[in-house]
Write a structure and sequence with these properties.
Layout: H1 3-13, H2 17-23, E1 30-34, H3 41-47, E2 52-54, E3 61-64, H4 73-76, E4 80-82, E5 101-104, H5 111-117, E6 125-129, H6 133-146, E7 151-154, H7 158-164, E8 169-175, H8 190-193, H9 196-216, E9 217-227, H10 236-245, E10 249-252, E11 266-268, E12 277-284, H11 304-313, E13 320-324, E14 327-331, E15 342-345, E16 347-353, E17 356-359, H12 361-365, E18 376-379, H13 381-388, E19 393-394, E20 400-406, E21 409-417, E22 420-423
Parallel strand pairs: 5-6, 5-8, 6-7, 8-9, 18-20
Antiparallel strand pairs: 1-3, 1-4, 2-3, 7-15, 9-12, 10-12, 11-12, 13-14, 14-16, 16-17, 19-22, 20-21, 21-22
Helix pairs in contact: 7-9
The protein binds S-adenosylmethionine.
Length: 433
């Protein structure tokens, strides 16, 4: 074992150190939470056909032993999100009653964002950012699968983003890049990377990100800070220094079984039947002196072919149509113009190719448009399997684009012409069942 880590665990877990080290020999736990934005909890549980056990940390999170949960029908339908159970706990603490603008500074692959949106008001807007463009693309895929559409996905430097959103956010989520000690059972190679200088480097980055979080918050706004490590420098020390640096930030103490040395913060580890999660909730004073950025709304566009497509296919009256980087987006609330580095503005509607409009998969997966699709084709089990495999379907339906559903949950879309439903399920998602 890495000697630095061994010494650290003595400081973290004290008389429980040997119990902790024993726990490292057990396999890691696996979890998921239910996407209640898409369906009622009981209805999702009815569709789950593999063993799972409710976690005691959160009403919607479960343990499972499935060897490939990404290849289950409930996952295809976006009814669950795989994530270890302790990672679902932080989202249950912020007070979301008045929260309108949520900013997730380090959002990829999207678990914390989705978890918060599951609990927030439908009309709230989330800005999900990740500095890695590649990882931000995974947020897009996950949001698409889970049907999330009240979001802007960005890939920007957090200094630039906090400058654009200065003094605006009701809630900032900072699930920071960290040394990942809580992931050691899943990725044992992490242990080899642990050194004091590596941890210090990460603590510096977290400090910079915490500064950006402060700048982004409006007075009275909340900050949820989390890591999946046990390191004092990245956890307890970070909290202590933050409160010293920003006297207008207060810690909102959380009552929860915890291995943290800082009262009111939470640290969970394999001794709690989880992997690893540290978190702390802060609030900016409502009279904190704050500068405000001038946010402008993105300018909507009119495009006859696209507008006609919307009218013919969706039963909605008011919407904002946006054009960004050659792609059409739609939102039912006005969205901010965040300049460059945007991967998605609300619902990715589709693209014009020559004089024809081709809709996107995201358009047909949106939770916000549930009940608004004019043409819907609900599949039986055999057809659902064929659809996921990418096959065409024979039907007697009139020619249209159709939202394709299974048990009334959206899978995607198809284009029917002369009795053949052309399969529009994205090629990258198709699989043999
Ligand atoms: N919150 C995510 C979730 O629940 O799925 C997990 C976030 S992960 C712990 C940390 C993320 O921070 C990584 O995706 C990484 O690319 C991103 N990151 C690292 N440095 C960053 C920076 N300077 N600004 C923004 N994101 C950063």
């Amino acid at each position: 074992m890495n000697d630095y880590f061994y010494q650290q665990t003595k400081a973290y877990f004290k008389e429980k150190q040997s119990d902790y080290l024993e726990k490292l020999k057990e396999p890691c736990t696996q979890g998921f939470f239910l996407n209640t934005l898409k369906a009622k909890k009981e209805d999702i549980l009815d569709l789950i056909d593999f063993p799972c056990k409710k976690s005691s940390y959160d009403n919607n999170s479960y343990y499972h032993d499935h060897s490939n949960i990404g290849k289950t029908i409930v996952n295809d339908l976006g009814l669950i999100y795989p994530q270890e159970v302790a990672a679902s706990l932080p989202a249950s603490y912020p007070d979301l009653a008045e929260v309108k603008l949520i900013v997730d500074l380090c959002a990829a692959p999207g678990g914390k964002s989705i978890d918060i949106l599951n609990r927030a008001k439908e009309e709230s807007l989330l800005i999900a950012n990740d500095i890695s463009h590649e990882r931000a693309l995974v947020i897009s895929q996950n949001f698409e699968r889970l049907g999330i559409s009240n979001a802007i996905i960005t890939s920007k430097d957090t200094d630039r983003l906090s400058e654009q959103l200065e003094g605006q956010a009701d809630l900032v989520i900072l699930d920071a890049p960290c040394s990942g000690e809580g992931m050691i059972r899943k990725y044992p190679e992490i242990m080899d990377m642990l050194t004091e200088s590596y941890t210090k480097e990460l603590a510096e980055l977290q400090k910079k990100l915490l500064d950006a979080a402060y700048r982004t918050l409006k007075p009275g706004g909340q900050l949820l800070y989390s890591t999946c490590t046990y390191s004092f420098l990245e956890d307890e020390e970070q909290v202590k220094n933050y409160l010293e640096r920003y006297p207008t930030m207060k810690l909102i103490p959380i009552k929860q079984e915890s291995y943290s040395d800082y009262p009111g913060t939470v640290k969970l580890c394999p001794l709690n039947e989880t992997e690893g999660q540290f978190f702390a909730l802060f609030q900016k004073d409502s009279d904190a002196e704050t500068s405000y950025s001038r946010l402008h709304n993105l300018k909507p566009v009119k495009q006859k072919t696209v507008d006609t497509f919307i009218q013919e296919n969706l039963d909605i009256r008011e919407y904002y149509l946006y054009l960004y980087n050659g792609h059409y987006y739609m939102s039912q609330i006005p969205l901010y113009d965040l300049d460059n580095g945007i991967l998605r503005y609300g619902i990715y509607l589709g693209d014009m190719t020559k004089d024809r409009f081709e809709p996107s998969h995201h358009l047909y997966r949106s939770n916000l448009l549930k009940g608004c699709y004019r043409h819907v084709y609900d599949l039986n089990e055999e057809e659902m399997r064929s659809y996921l495999e990418g096959r065409e379907l024979k039907t007697e339906l009139p020619d249209h684009y159709y939202q394709i559903t299974y048990k009334d949950y959206s899978l995607g879309y198809g284009k029917c012409a002369k009795g053949i439903m052309k399969n529009k399920y994205p090629k990258g998602l198709r699989r043999m069942l």
